[in-house]
């Protein structure tokens, strides 16, 4: 940690809610924001041990963090999360919505239940959290949703997943315009292939190497790469970036 305390426009410490904070990218985002002095609420759905490990790593480094569970697609549970964050820290300045799932199959072979499951988490979940963020973020705040570079790559097998993230982009860009006058930015980050356990699982070394070579930088992204993009959008340097999709993918698309 750098020891500095991130403050909002009122001089109060900044507070962030990171959904999916127990995941590879979500955990990196939580740690990166905490490194800037932001108090972080690490949301998780089913990985309490992983979320607590993220909290412990942040507090061990001198930061402030707490874990909180909840179903991202259930308004009552996400309202409880936001209520808890406000009760603990006095308000919310940053919401980073990393929670999401990816189920792959050609469209002709995809089970409707799998598509519905992705839609519930990726689209409905983003809607639920974005609506709360729109109502509760303090002036000077930021909402950062998550899309994917696959929306531009048109890769076989990713149609159902990319469709959910296209919906996320549409909601994000329109919400940015709807919050005119609130001094709240709304953007999306669209990662490319990123070396998380979820990405690596089930892939051969040969396939991973092929995917890595596709980017001009000839490597996979890291969760830390994505966290830096989020920290930029959430920080003072990103205040003039609004209603945009930031592709963090090493030039792959």
UniProtKB/TrEMBL annotation:
It comes from the Bacteria. The keyword Metal-binding does not apply. The keyword Nucleotide-binding does not apply. SUPFAM superfamilies: NAD(P)-binding Rossmann-fold domains. It holds the Pfam family adh_short_C2. Keywords: Oxidoreductase. GO terms for molecular function: oxidoreductase activity, acting on CH-OH group of donors. Residues 14-192 form the Ketoreductase domain. Belongs to the short-chain dehydrogenases/reductases (SDR) family. This is SDR family oxidoreductase. It comes from Streptomyces sp. R08.
